Amino acid sequence: MMRNGGPLMGREGPPIRKHKSSPGLQSTILERLTHSDGLVSVVVILLGFIVATVLILLVGRRPGGMYSAIIQVLTGLDLRRFTWNARYMGEWFVMSMPLILCGLSMGFAARTGLFNIGAEGQYIAGITVAQLVGFWGPRIPVFHWLLALVAAMAAGAVWGGVVGWFKARFSVSEVVATIMMNYIALYGSRLITLTIPGANTYRTPDFPTSALLRSPLLEGLTNGSRLNYGIWFTLGAIFFYWIVMGKTRLGYSLRATGLNKDAAKYGGISVNSSITASMAISGAFAGLAGAIVALGSFSYGRVLGAQDGYGFDGIAVALVGNSTAWGTALAGLLFGMLKSAQPLMQSRQIPKEIASIIMGLVVVFISLRSGVRIILDWQLKEKVRKNKAAGEVSPRAEQSLSGDSPRGGE
Asked: What is the number of alpha carbons within 13 Å of residue 171 lying toward its C-beta?
């Protein structure tokens, strides 16, 4: 009797109907949300704008000013005067290009299990070398600025590759090493740039025309904006990232190293080479960003007195873009749009700091995703433990529930 209808039935037979029912609506939404990186990015961006809207209301301003500024950046349409100027769109892309490239720099390293906080230093290395080639390179149209771009990418690759080599050879923390390299790059750039004839503590003389990335066609299409040939190299970098990371043997080796170094080594992958190559390629992305800013946004060389911050903003861009090629590109466009809209917000009596607040909130909300996953995992394990103690779930059901947990049953 007990064997047919008692507690033993629960242990040997299938779980009772109670545990086959669908989970609560709240848990289901949270679980699906945390399993979709793209959906999480969209939700946190919306939350960032909602919170910013509330803050604007609290300080006694009209949120419509913020949104009209954003529309003007995205479309060139001024809703106050009903005029259209494509220059705003061009400047949006100009602001987005270094953010995308520095985001790719951070994301490429992240896919290999590294945290490249040194994109700022690699970006500065690119600026410095691009400026030097801009002054002393062969003044041949196209070839001049193309040589400067290649040299800047090489400089960024060396600056990042050194950190990767130290990480692979001596297990030096890439976080500490890249932070230190950022300051070396900044002050080293200042010392080197000051040696250019005619340079003062702020700037150098103007570049020769052959060194500039100016595109008369793109400038004409965007009503005299600074949009330049760098846009094509940025698109090329996005495609390169997408192809290498998802379609090549090198990308497979890098991703395998990032997921599990021991397993990658057991599978015949050179982990040390992967780490060094990843940091070098990451540095090349940031170096390209530096060259595009140096020769595309300015007609003269700059003697840097402080960091531009693109490398650090790239960390947030990569986080929001989930370290994917196209996700990072979209996140870079979002952040570039917010930065480009700041002057327009001020003209509408909206504090420009609102844009920075939105970017910060987006990063904070993205970071909460891991915490939500941990909570869901804990709740599921607690449910299994209680059901097991009550004798209401079979070992097979326990294994199934653990395998369906957000962290893969770890």
From this structure: 1
Helices 230-247 and 325-347: crossing angle in degrees, nearest 10, is 150
The pLDDT of 149-157, averaged and rounded, is 98
Q: Is the pLDDT of residue 155 over 70?
A: yes
pTM: 0.86
Distance CA 131, CA 149 (A): 10
Q: Other CB atoms closer than 10 Å to residue 12's CB: what's the count?
A: 9
285 in Cβ contact with 156 (< 8 Å): yes
**pLDDT tens sequence across 198-234:** 999 999 999 999 999 999 999 999 999 999 999 999 9
Residue among 403, 366, 331 at smallest CA distance from 47: 366
Say how many CA atoms lie within 13 Å of 3 toward its Cβ.
0
DSSP string, 276-333: HHHHHHHHHHHHHHHHHIIIII-SEEE--SS--SHHHHHHHHHHHTTT-HHHHHHHHH
Report if residue 192 sits inside a domain: yes
Domain total of the chain:
1
Distance CA 272, CA 90 (A): 42
| Residue 361 within any structural domain of the chain | no
Q: In angstroms, rounded to a whole number, what is the distance separating the alpha carbons of residues 293 and 310?
A: 10
Which residues, in sequence order, are CB contacts of 244 under 8 Å at separation 6+?
250, 251, 281
Beta bridge partners of 37: none
Is residue 178, in this structure, part of any structural domain at all? Answer: yes
pLDDT at residue 256, as a whole number:
94
283: containing domain: 92-331
